[in-house]
Amino acid sequence: MASGPDESLLAFTESFSFDVRLWRDDIAGSRAHVEGLGASGILRGSDVAAILSALDRVADEFATGSFVPAPTDEDVHTAIERRVTEIAGEPGARMHTGRSRNDQCVTALRLWVRRELREVALSVIGLCHALGRLADEAGTGEDGAIVPGYTHVQRAQPVLLAHHFLAHGWALSRDAERMAEVLVRTDVSPLGAGALAGSTLPLDPVATAARLGFGATFDNSLDAVSDRDFVAESLFCLALAGTHLSRIGEEFVLWTSSEFGFAVLDDRYATGSSMLPQKKNADIAELARGKVGRLVGNLVAVLTVLKGLPLAYNRDLQEDKEPLFDSVDTVKLAVRAVDGMVSTASFSREAMSRAAVGGSIAAVDVAEWLVARGTPFRDAHAVVGRLVRESAGDGARLAVLVDAELGAEAAALLDGRQGLLRRSSHGASGPSAVQAQRVRYAERLGALRQRLGDR
Ligand code: ARG
């Protein structure tokens, strides 16, 4: 092609404004590539040295904020090559040998994801630890704090508050695990695939991959330059982690309302109203809920770009980056905010326990008491259901009815605490089961940390 696109089009086609975030990764990729060209004898040692030292200088310019982009720099990759050539002269014109921006840009993006998604995963594990601490503070013994467990937002059965916190923790631990799995598939070098077909030059993509610390090398050059599975998968992990944060957020909105009164936010994690002086708003919890809109949107955006795209590279693929960057940024901030919010909140054991015991909340415990004495469950369910209906929602009256029909031992269960203490089957909500769960939870977090290479 004799000339580049018309200057007025650059605003439409350029990606430097956002892919400048990849400078570190592009330079790492270029170093490995140029070293490979030297090792294969394609470039002279003196050329390799000149390019590497120019790359060092460019890295320095980016790190100190003194890099000056040219108006014609379409993306960070062209910008760096231009600058290297300005610095190194003729050797700079040799650095792109055997390479295309198609394998170059996706190499940089994989390196970026490899670093950033790991960081997100570790911060998610940090939040898991915070939830573990909350569980410990709530207590897993017989005197542990209790809270109503809900189904359909109706009080269903009392559970240990620790059990409730850990439930969120397990979900988030799966997010970290999922990210670790995506990191394995991300850890594949596409460098050496060229524009789409590899090269006639004696490149050694396997050695280049090793130089970059990649765990594997591409197997098919067409696939290497067009595969953005790792972007879509990352976005899914981030959207699901954000979804889990939104569920915590929603509960904190409910729990801090005067209707529930279960929790009070620390002032640093709440905001006042611009008009109503008495208000203390759970804005962080609401944003944890609301940010999921963009996280899901980013996933859908990338899947939509990929859908129906013919092999191999198409410029559409440049649209992979902004959604990814946005989701990573968003989840990083959201995890930190939710971590701070839950870690500094205070919880009202009184309000929770008032809501969690008495009334008919332990009806199933009475039914199970009958089952333990030989009554078929369906019949026991019918008996207790009838008594609950007769009591018309009045806990004291229910106690009288149960006492009259089934005896004092059954009536004593209605408070709910006894049933909770005895709910000890694997994974259940009572003290001994939650203590065992807490041990497994700690082991899992340790294993995840180790898997992510964090000690
Ligand atoms: N900036 C582009 C991207 O991020 C890389 C350049 C693609 N190559 C090309 N032939 N236009 O996808």
In short:
By secondary structure, the chain is mostly helical.
> For this entry, what is the oligomeric state of its chains?
single chain
The CATH homologous superfamily of the largest domain is termed Fumarase/aspartase (Central domain)
Query: Count the strands?
Result: 8
* CATH domain class of the largest domain: Mainly Alpha
**Largest sheet descriptor:** 2 strands, antiparallel
Q: What is the helical fraction, as a range of percent?
A: 55-70%
Provide the domain count. Answer: 3
- Average residue-wise pLDDT: 96
Shape annotation: elongated
Strand order of the largest sheet: 1-2
Distance between the termini: 52 Å
Description:
The chain has 455 residues and is mainly α. The chain has three domains: 7-97, Fumarase C, Chain B, domain 1 (Orthogonal Bundle); 103-201 and 215-354 and 436-451, Fumarase C, Chain A, domain 2, CATH 1.20.200; 358-415, no CATH class. Helices cover 63% and strands 5% of the residues. It contains 20 helices and eight strands. A hairpin with a 7-residue loop joins β6 (271-272) and β7 (280-281). α3 packs antiparallel against α4 and α6 runs antiparallel to α20. The longest helix has 38 residues, at 101-138. The radius of gyration is 30 Å and the shape is elongated. The two termini are 52 Å apart.
Spell out the key features of this protein:
Fumarase C, Chain A, domain 2; elongated; binds arginine; 455 residues; 3 domains; Fumarase C, Chain B, domain 1; mainly alpha; two-stranded parallel ribbon; two-stranded antiparallel ribbon
